[in-house]
Design goal:
The protein is α/β, with parallel strands linked by helices. The chain has 6 domains: 3-81 and 89-106, GIY-YIG endonuclease (3-Layer(aba) Sandwich); 111-176, Arc Repressor Mutant, subunit A; 193-255, no CATH class; 275-467, 3-Layer(aba) Sandwich (Rossmann fold), CATH 3.40.50; 473-519 and 578-712, Rossmann fold (3-Layer(aba) Sandwich); 723-815, 2-Layer Sandwich (Alpha-Beta Plaits). Helix content is 35%, strand content 22%. It has a 7-stranded parallel beta sheet with strand order 14-15-13-16-17-12-18, sandwiched between helices. Strand 34 and strand 35 form a beta hairpin. Helix 8 packs across helix 9, helix 11 (283-297) packs across helix 12 (312-325) and helix 22 (659-671) runs parallel beside helix 23 (693-699). The longest helix has 19 residues, at 735-753. Residues 272-276 have low confidence and may be disordered.
Length: 818
């Protein structure tokens, strides 16, 4: 009887693929193991074993697998079930979920090596110039990788060149698989066992008296041993003794010292400090904890609605402590990497080495180590803090999920697929494990608040700040009036400037919020009105002063700032609008003695960049911090008494049904950074429209009124949570073909679904990276079956793909589009 293995390949294809395996392999392979399999003409991929069976495929002749890469499953059944749900719900393939979920070190792909053909008789005169360069390089090297050939001939795409050389018999091709992850081995030393005998040791010390450097190394080893009973790394011994590596190596060669290696994780955490282990909750927090526990008993997700600085983290810590005491794992999800750096220190205070961190700023090796620790339920991975990707870790004993700042749009993955929402996916993950989940926010999303009001979620609230600190006083500054009366200095109103001077005078810190990075979003010629545009996208280029560049924030295109207008040659270039860089420069001129820091995407590119900026501000090395939305999210600065919002209108006037909800959340969150200790904080919001309802609701901290108004509007115009939304985006470089195809798609959807279909319509930015975009919005009433609607859409997609002239058009689905 023949045996076959169904595998999932990390590529965007719907189907599972079947390979032939032997009887022994069939007995050994378990679902979730990695296997290397040939795919296509010569490529080797890492696939995940899905199912072993005995049914031969009818459509093709199955190939044999290349090799088994794991001895035990890398992916557990909980994960497989969860990933299948994500693929199904968010309308993508299981392969795309796996590509996103597994650290890239696990997804080995073969590398094409080009080898010289020793048997070939090559006529050098017949070779083209680029072919000769490769041939010549192979005279000195045994093999070349594709990127090395690319460097030699200075071309990006060299596959056609390699194919020509293969056809001429000059070179041979070979596929090699490399393991990307290498464990970190630390070298340690100890005294050889024969010197455990005191007589031997005395003889050794007498013998070494003639070699003072070696004698010093041995004595230093004893001193280190007395200080702590832990293994002694060679680097520590070198430092302590002042001896060189050569001296230590000589002792190892003489068998006086023994060298050995221990595998060590790249990220290490400190011990828990005893003083902070016992948290005492105030009455409001204790009541919230009680309400959360009631919700858990009812097997519901629980929404914790606590105002800014109300002490939600302490409530989470209590819940995590209960979870750890039961011997289970806890997952703490955060929307931003910026938040993790502050929270990690707080949680390590309480739980020490039990905390692991997982996010995209970590290197491949560090992520693999966290994955393995979670897989083996190691003590150092009892609590995982991370951004949305930490959902995919191999939890087997998940006992609690905390989703902090659950309203954040950063929890939604936009590109590439799977376009999942981490909050919703976390709720499903918790239900698979049967574990409780708590969603926390000072400004819950309209959907979560609606679910709590209708009883789908449990509900707990903390309406007072910790330590009875007052909510900040929020005032609106009318900059239309200030501009008319010429009371503006740059982008600062007199009111804001006086408040900054006052705060700095009292030794307090200030946060200024402007949700746009760069120096100026538009550079315009005042002679002809020409604005520098991105050649690949339909957006103007943003001026970045520190690089003297114009940059596109969509595709990354950049060019040097021109001295004259590209259209008319006039030198009259004017910078319109303002970003964080310009605010920082203006502050430097207005307050030359103050230290101003900036926190946006440009200043937080490095691995520890967030930590450096946050620590510097916490330690009062900076007086003013200028930032984009990164500064709004849950950060806790004790000495900030003033928050200034430079311009609230750009958010309010955004063409999106969530614009008002988002503005309320962002303004409330950034206001919450002020006055977190005894002195009442102050918030100034600069706006051209101080009578706007949302701004009025922010000043009175009236979440309920905002929710009622937003829900009423969504009921009228049929938007979530009243209906479900699927956005279909069509992408192509041919403008006319895209228009025709999107019209075909929209009319087919209307004919089949009969529900409300909006579009096709161009988005605000209608071309990105040379692709034109068109959106179709499908509104699905709660009474309709979501699964049936998706199946109908998939059937229409099959008909669409069957039309040959639409072959090049890409369809992108965004379920629960936000």
């Amino acid at each position: 009887m023949e045996h076959f293995l169904e595998v999932v390949l990390p590529i965007p294809l719907e189907k599972l693929f079947t390979y032939r395996i032997s009887r022994q392999e069939a007995d050994f392979i378990e679902p979730g193991m990695r296997v290397a399999v040939p795919f296509g003409k010569s490529k080797i991929y890492t696939a995940l074993a899905y199912r072993v069976h005995t049914e031969a495929p009818t459509a093709y002749e199955p190939k044999e697998i290349y090799q088994i890469l794991d001895e035990k499953p890398l992916v557990n059944p909980f994960q497989m079930k969860h990933w299948e749900w994500i693929a199904n719900y968010y309308m993508c393939t299981l392969g795309e979920v796996i590509r996103s979920a597994l650290p890239s070190a696990f997804l080995l792909e073969s590398e094409t090596l080009v080898l010289p053909n020793k048997q070939a008789d090559v006529d050098e005169m017949e070779l083209a110039d680029d072919e000769f360069l490769v041939y010549e390089a192979l005279q000195y090297q045994t093999a070349l990788k594709i990127e090395e050939i690319s460097d030699i001939v200075d071309k990006k795409n060299v596959l056609s060149l390699v194919n020509r050389l293969v056809q001429k018999g000059v070179v041979l091709q070979k596929e090699e698989i490399y393991e990307q992850y290498k464990p970190k081995m630390v070298r340690y030393v100890k005294l050889s066992e024969k010197y455990d005998d005191e007589g031997e040791l005395e003889a050794l010390l007498n013998e070494l008296s003639r070699a003072p450097k070696q004698s010093q190394v041995v004595l230093s080893l004893f001193q280190l041993k007395l200080k702590s009973n832990k293994p002694i790394p060679i680097s520590d011994l070198e430092k302590e003794s002042g001896g060189s590596r050569a001296v230590i190596k000589a002792l190892i060669d003489k068998d006086i010292l023994n060298e050995y290696s221990i595998r060590e994780d790249r990220v290490k955490h400190g011990e828990a400090s005893e003083t902070t282990k016992n948290i005492v909750l105030n009455e409001h927090q204790a009541k919230a904890l009680e309400d959360i526990t009631v919700g858990f008993l009812e097997k519901k997700p629980v929404l914790l609605h606590g105002v800014t600085s109300s002490g939600k983290t302490e409530v989470y810590v209590k819940l995590i402590q209960q979870c750890i005491d039961e011997g289970k794992q806890a997952l703490y999800l955060l929307p931003e990497i910026a938040l993790t750096s502050q929270l990690i220190n707080r949680l390590r205070h309480y739980f020490g080495q039990k905390v692991s961190v997982y996010h995209s700023k970590y290197s491949i090796h560090e992520r693999v180590e966290v994955w393995n620790n979670v897989l083996h339920n190691a003590e150092k991975a009892q609590i995982v803090i991370g951004a949305r990707s930490s959902l995919f870790l191999p939890f087997s004993k998940l006992g609690l999920v905390v989703v902090d700042e659950e309203h954040e749009s950063s929890f939604k993955q936009f590109d590439p697929a799977p376009r999942y929402h981490a909050r919703d996916a976390a709720i499903v993950l918790a239900s698979f494990h049967g574990s409780p989940i708590v969603l926390g926010s000072a400004t819950p999303s309209v959907e979560s608040a609606y679910n709590a009001k209708t009883g789908k979620y449990g509900y707990a609230s903390i309406k007072y700040r910790f330590g009875e600190v007052l909510m900040p006083e929020i005032n609106l500054v009318d900059i239309k009036e200030a501009t008319r009366k010429r009371r503006m200095k740059g982008h600062f109103s007199e009111t804001l400037l006086h408040a900054i001077e006052e705060a700095l005078g009292e030794g307090e810190q200030v946060i200024l919020f402007q949700n746009r990075r760069g120096f100026a979003p538009v550079v315009e010629c005042t002679t002809c009105g020409h604005v520098a545009q991105c050649p690949n996208c339909d957006v103007s280029l943003t001026y970045h002063q520190h690089r003297n560049q114009l940059r596109c924030h969509y595709c990354g295109y950049h060019m040097a700032l021109q001295q004259a207008c590209l259209a008319c040659g006039s030198p009259t270039l004017d910078k319109k609008g303002f970003g964080t860089e310009q605010i920082q420069e203006e502050l430097g001129q207005l307050f030359p003695k103050t230290k101003v820091g900036r926190m946006d995407l440009d200043t937080t590119r490095g691995k520890y960049a967030y930590e450096k900026i946050i620590s510097a501000f916490e330690n009062q090395e900076m007086d003013i911090l200028v930032g984009t939305q990164m500064v709004t999210k849950g950060l806790d600065f004790r000495n900030v008494s003033l928050v200034g919002i430079m311009n609230a209108d750009s958010m309010l006037n955004f063409p999106d049904y969530r614009a008002h909800e988002r503005s309320f959340q962002m303004l409330t969150q950034v206001a919450g950074r002020a006055g977190r200790t005894q002195k009442r904080g102050k918030v100034l919001i600069q706006t051209y429209n101080p009578y706007h309802q949302i701004l009025q609701q922010v000043t009175t901290h009236d979440y309920d009124k905002m929710f009622k108004e937003q829900y009423y509007e969504r009921e009228q115009f049929k938007y979530p949570p009243v209906v479900r939304i699927i956005k279909v985006t069509l992408k192509d470089r041919d403008f006319n073909k895209l228009n025709e195809a999107s019209d075909w798609m929209a009319s087919s959807l209307r004919n089949v679904l009969g529900t409300q279909i909006l579009g096709p319509e161009y988005p605000p930015v209608a071309r990105i990276s040379r692709d034109y975009l068109k959106n179709i919005l499908i509104k699905i009433p709660k009474s309709d079956s979501l699964a049936q609607t998706k199946n109908s859409i998939k059937r229409i997609e099959k008909s669409f793909n069957a039309i040959s002239k639409y072959k090049s058009i890409r369809l992108v689905y965004n379920v629960d589009h936000i």
